[in-house]
Every structure is written in structure tokens, then in C-alpha cells.
Amino acid sequence: MIAKLLRRDLALFLPFAGRGAASSGAALPVVFFVAVAMLYPFAVGPDAPLLARTGGGVIWIAALLASILPLDRLVARDIELGIFDQLALRGITEETMMAIRLAAHWISFGPALMLASLPAAALLQLEGESVRLVILGLLAGTPGLAAIGLIIASLTASLRAGAALSGLLLIPLALPILIFGAGALARADAASLGFVAAISLGLVAIAPFAAGAAIRAVR
Amino acid sequence: MQGSAPEQIYARDLACRRGDRLLFRRLSLAVGSGEAYHITGANGAGKTTLLRTIAGLADPYAGEAGFAGTAALIDDRLGLEADWPLARALAFWFALDRPSDEGAILERLRLADLADVPVRFLSTGQKKRACLARLIGQDAQVWLLDEPLSGLDSATQALVGALVAEHLASGGAALIASHQALDIHGLKTLAIEDYAPPGEAVPAAGPEAAA
Fold this sequence. Notes:
Oligomer: heterodimer
Number of helices of chain B: 5
Radius of gyration of chain A: 18 Å
CATH class of the largest domain in chain B: Alpha Beta
CATH superfamily of the largest domain in chain B: P-loop containing nucleotide triphosphate hydrolases
């Protein structure tokens, strides 16, 4: 049952996994992420030491903003179509649905961002150790971003301006992840990535229950 | 949700409201195996709310309601992925529900030719037929049908009647909220307006309103 739900969610959210309009927007976060990394050198000029010093922070900001893009389709569509109601009638709890949705959401953008941070790091003249810290940081931080995104998408699912609002709401909540994740680069110290992982872990543990309660309250 | 009583669908002293408005109160209902009720009432009288409360998708204001075993619901929401071809959208539910003969279900509802059409391009009646296919595939003991006939031509309306009759004959139970007359043998009628509160008053005193 869980495998079937996960397969459906992945077909909806994973870029290029399914055909049709539903999945064509799924590659957008990654494209957006690389586009920001590409634009930044144009904006500040080809000053390699400056790019190398600030590039890691730009990658983190790009990752944070990219994680906002899928939020409008993450939960609201399934409520509108009555999919969650039909699943609930089959005895599947909202918490299970949301835990599966969280996994699918992260799989659809987390690993892709980590891969895309390689070309992004090249564009921003990052050195070997910084690249390692960026990728490790994204590995620790993107599950947390996905969890915050899922909670916010569930809370704003019934609002008309929910999509715009969710972007605004995610930014302050994601600040701790950004501070410790990008901070690891500034000090070239992997220890603060432990904080990022801890924050992510806490968020991932809370998200299915918070999001499940939110979609129960909506209907 | 399992009731200790033998009835398949039950409501005891049920009161429901939408927003601040009390829709109905003191509604008691027991539907046994092979029985079906036609729920009538004007728009906004609370038919959909009653079905959703029994399905466990809405909380009652007072009293209790529920079903025994498994329940299937058809309402104005598709319950099918709109961007997927019909066959794929239905296959997701068939994979969960495991009906014995999927081909026969599609054939019966004349959906076999529409398998490759994305659900959002289907007409109103075709979408309804797709929902009926999902309903049959679930093989639930309790059917909760909210306006199952809206948008259907007369032949398909007759088909719905036949499907419900078969469901009842095999020991199922059904609640059907509809504005249209239903031609189903032994169908009982529940007029939800018989349970409407006097006036349009907002309940001031809380759950006692239903006691």
C-alpha cells in the first residue's frame, strides 16, 4: 500500500518520471537553482576570489528559494480532487499520506539539487572543500526544507493566495537551516552541519503529524 | 468505526452544522444489509454533510454516526488524477482495491474506449462513469452516493439504478442523496428537512440542542 502511494506521488512530483502536464513543472526547481548560480557571476562580475567567497551562500539561497516552487501543487491539488478523502475511506491515515508525500517531495528535488550544485559550484568558482561542504550541507538541509514546505503547503491549502503566502512563510522558518548550512562554508567547518541535520531530523519527525492535522482541519 | 449493532450504516441523535448554522438535529438512522435510503432535501439542507459525517470525513456536532466494514463515496470531487489518462488514474485505485475483474468494470461503464483520454478532457457524464468504476472496484459494503445521477443521460441513470440494485442484492447498503427520482426497488426515503431545527437560529447553548 505504501509502495503504491509512493509510486503515485513520485510519478506526480519527480521530474520526467511521468508524462503529461502534471510532471512538466517538476523540473522547475532545479532549472531555477542552476539559473540563479548562472546569473550571479554576471551580476557581480568575474572576480574569482569574490565569487569563491560568496558563492556557497548564493547556492544556499538558491536552494531555499527553489524549494518554494513546488509548494503550490504539493497538497492543494489532492484536496481539490478529493484524493485524500478517498484514501481516508480506505483506512489510510492522514499522517501516513503526509509521510509518503514528504518522502516523494524530498526525492523530487533534494538529490537533484545536490547534483545540480556541481555545475553551480563550477560557475561560482568554488574549491574542492567548499563543494564538499555545500553538497553535505544540502544533504542535511533539504529534508528540513521539504518538511517545512509540506507543513506550510498543508496549512495554506485552503487559502486562495496560498501559493504566494507559502513562499513568504517558508523563508523565516528556513532561517536556522540557512544560517548553519551556509555558516559551515564561511568557517570551512563541517561541525555546524550537525546542527543542520538535527534541525532537519526534528522537522521531518514533526511534519507528517502537523501536515496531517492541517489537511484534516481543512475538510 | 465498527458499530456493535448489526446495521451497516448508523446515525444516533446526530446533529451537524456547517459554519455556525445548524443543518439538522436528532437524526437517527439504521440501514441494514440490503437496504437503501434516498436522502432528499433542498440545496444546503445538509445531504452532503450527512454523507461526509457518516463516512468519517466530517465531525458531528452532536451524536454519532458511522458505518460497519468498508465504505465507498462518490461526491462532486473526481477522486481521480486529472492529468493522467483514465486507465492510469483508475489503475491507481484498482491497485489499492484489487477488484476481481477490472476489464468487466470498464466494459460495463463503457469506459474501455476512453482509456487513453486524460481525465480532465472527459465530459461530465464520462467523469461520473469513471467515478462509478472506482466505486465498483472498491467492492465496499456501504455505498455513499452524493448526486450520482447529475449529468448522466437516461440510459446511464438506469445503469446506476441497476448497479445499486445489484449492490443491495449482494447484501450491501446504500445512502443516496439526489434531487432526481430513483427507480430502485424497496428504496426508502429520508427527508432531511424533517430534522431541520425550527427557524434558522444559531445554536446558542451548544450540544444540548440535539439532546
